Amino acid sequence: MRRITTAxxxxxxxxxxxxxxxxxxxxxxxxxxxxxxxxxxxxxxxxLSLRARVPGVTVAGVERALYEDRSLVRMMAMRRTLFVVxxxxxxxxxxxxxxxxxxxxxxxxxxLMDGGVMTDVAGDxxxxxxxxxxxxxxxTLRTLVARGEAVGAELARDVPRLGASVELAQGRSYAATxxxxxxxxxxxxxxxxxxxxxxxxxxxxxxxxxxxTDAWLGTAIADVPVEEAxxxxxxxxxxxxxxxxxxxxxxxTGWPLGQVRAALAAIGPEEVDLDGTPGVLLPGDxxxxxxxxWVALLPGLDPTPMGWQERSWFLGPHAAALFDRNGNVGPTxxxxxxxxxxxxxxxxxxxxxxLLEDVGAEAAAAVEAAAAGVAAWVGPTRVTPRxxxxxxxxxxx
Length: 397
Known about the structure:
By secondary structure, the protein is an alpha+beta fold. Among the domains are: about 100-215, Orthogonal Bundle (Arc Repressor Mutant, subunit A), CATH 1.10.10; about 295-395, no CATH class. The chain is built from 16 helices and 16 strands. A four-stranded antiparallel sheet has the order 13-14-15-16, sandwiched between helices. Strand 14 (about 330-335) and strand 15 form a beta hairpin. Helix 5 crosses helix 10 and helix 10 (about 225-240) crosses helix 12. The radius of gyration is 22 Å and the shape is globular. InterPro entries: AlkZ-like (IPR009351). It comes from Virgisporangium ochraceum. Keywords: Membrane, Transmembrane, Transmembrane helix. It holds the Pfam family AlkZ-like. This is Winged helix DNA-binding domain-containing protein.
């Protein structure tokens, strides 16, 4: 069994994630494909992740890919997480992950509707919730086709039933009333019928407009057999994140272990030794060339630190400072394939860093230069991570 050292894994990360000097991508599409997908739960992550990997990219350049060229698309998929993926990857991601998440979410929403007290806008409680929900979705799609694009509030005005509400946990301290607008739109997006387009406001806004998928992309999402799609998604993940333990693949995809093993069987990966831990690697993948020294500032939820469940080989003892309690990473400082600190933007726009280990004077100076570069790139925009972590809070206190 071939042994892959931690140093070799860090070297692969540097080049394949487009972070080392000379490894940057020429286009935002190339950078996104190199990582399989970009985390998009926090809109700023997409822009700052690409800034770190595409020399010379601008906010306008990323927006052009998302909203004019439409070569990058937002979609909810693995682990019910919002991602940005290259348009060519949409059929694979939809078949491999989106469909299953859609089915799970539909069951969940229907269960909440059945278990709560549901009131239609007419004051009625529909008896066949599944049929009622499907009818509301159909009406919403017809309305969106007629409008072209719309935000949820606009659709709710045109489709009054989108304003229906469900009272949850009645009589308990955590009782709440939930309108179904977001439920319906999320289900339709998960089914591939609608997509998130340009938001209202700036590039850090989360108030999405919606459009029919076939109108936005120029075609419906192609149908790919599920088993084929799963194998292809795992192959792409291994090309970007391998070698890795099988448990990392299971975590990243959110699939049952049986589905992961079936996808791996279709690929036939090489089994390797990761400094004492069993791992898998794409057949014939022997690229171990070490890059030149490098530093990078990555945003919260960046796909590199969020790409593995087992992070000790690049994170070291810094998890408590840089992750929240739910496992979301904050802004991180990287040096030669490992996390060495964190950063934050203060209210006056200054980007400040804190190194959690000694990286030497030359690397420390490079980190400060990188921080100034982020501040200049962001300009007057103020970026607060959606999931705040202990170190980020300390730096902005």
